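Quick entry between incubations.
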Amino acid sequence: MKKFLNYIVFFAAIVTVYGCTGKKALFDELSGSHLTVIIKGTFESTDNALSIKNWDTTVSPTQSIDDSVNDCITDSSEQFPTTFMVDIAEMRMDDDEVSNYRQVFTAQVSDKDPFFNGQGVRLKCDDVKPGKMYNSVKLYIRKLIFDNATQWFVNAEGEWEQDSSPQVIFHEQTVNGFDFNQVLVNTFYDTLKVNSANINRVFPLEIPIDGGLKVNEDEEVVLEIRLIIKNFIKLYEYDFTNKNGYKAVYHYWAVSDWLRDVQPDDVYIGGNLLGVARVYRKDTVATVSGSTSSSGYVIAIPAYDINGNPQTIANYFLDDDNSSWVRPVYQPHTPSLQTSTIEGFLDYYLRYEQYKVEYNTFVAAVNATDNTNYEFVWNAYDGYKWSLRLPPLVAHSNGSYTLTNVPLGVYNFYFVADGDVLYGTLPDVDNVGSEKTATINIGSNTVDFP
Amino acid sequence: MKLKVFWLFVAISLLCISTDVFAQRKKADYFLKPQVGIWFGPVTPVFSTADDVDTALWGGGFVRFNVFALPLKVGFDSSYEHFKSEGVKELTVIPVYGNVLWRLPIDMPIAFQLKAGAGSAKVTIQPDNASQWDPLGMLGFELSFPAGKWINIGLRIDYLFIYEGYIKGASKNGHIINTGLTLYLNIGI
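Done. Structure below.
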């Protein structure tokens, strides 16, 4: 038996020695991640704060108050938001649960806040599967809140009177503001569909990864997600009846309806939260700088897509001259009597006449048998809007620009002047010009737009 | 009175001694046989490993032999332990080790044993899909009671330490506590 004990000890020794053949620190690998995820609220991709356009905080009906605000025009009483609050339930790569963590952050509406100055906010993320191609990142967004929302109601005299500020729970705290994520759930077209209750555009918000994400073993990769928030927000109106039975509205700040026009009395404004994601490896990126003859955006896209086919900016931006750009005719909202005053009745009858005209147009569209048919034009509209792709590389130039973290390769560069990108809009493909093709090598590169 | 107390003391002492002798002989007869068993229960990552993966339910098996010259048993243990997380992280550990068991000299029908051992563990992590063998050390405690001459039923707690400190750049090791119900047979009776 002593011999047997010797065998046991010998066995344990052999197995232990055999165990010392590992080459990778697996428990470190398990707790770490090769993927760094940062999220930004800018159209620009660069992390150079000087190449990011400053906030324009003007509050006016011609700029930041949306033309859908029709019941209560109160521009002199509205204030631009100062705080943006984000609550994300989880994040997935395609369907892989790489970040099953609730993540909450607050950004100041300021040119110095990391969310708006190009630095970005880091999101916690586990590893992704090496060698697997991921095409999209899914953000399960719980809340998006801007402060400085206001509440108004029609008082007994038939006049609009300001009420207390709307409040919402954010991160288990009550804050002043309006959670506009709830009105991003559906696009207007979704609400026309039988299955609208099963459609949710923000849980998750699916953001395409330009060029895809593929991580090789032991490779450190950064995934940059950009939500277009900065200089892309507007004031909207949300109609409801308050606790006292009065007609009331919330005025709230949310993303611009540049892509999917919001009409008066619309509840849902979905499809307007635009995002893009891109991937780069920290050790194989370059910086591109240059000068421009005027202020505007410098935009770069890979000259070839992931299949090796050449591409231009027309593969990204849309054309507002396209027949599918304008929102088609839709069933108009029925007017309601706002107040039982002479002015209220006159207003109601005017709206009723307008409603009858719009409804006749709607009926004609529904009955049409050609390509002006209601369903046909809405499908064309919806398909065209979803075809928008945002460019992976953008910097703003005030005469000079710096585009950072550019993966090596061949790119098409474009320039679009500020005058062609009004507040709350993104460039139209017709206005993006000065195409230049350049090969970007490691280090510093120069691309000028004289 | 003193005499009565004296004889009462003697009688109780004899009774206790006799019972102990009898019990010891019966337990020793069965428990000291070679044993084969299985266990099942919660496997819990602890310390730094607990930051990455969650507790799961798994089990394993073992064989044990007595060493007559010593108050010891020797055994082989192996198990399969698969840990998931809320996300994509997964850890699979297959420990294979030898151990020495020392039965505490407590004279009761319940056997208390301390264990110590060493061996290797095959460690696999996801989503990296990387795996390798790492050295392992273990300490454990077990109690069991006989359910007839063939069967023992017990409870066990083992701490497994999976060592990666020998790998360049490693800052973490694996820490797992296995607890479980165990059922094993006295064989060769």
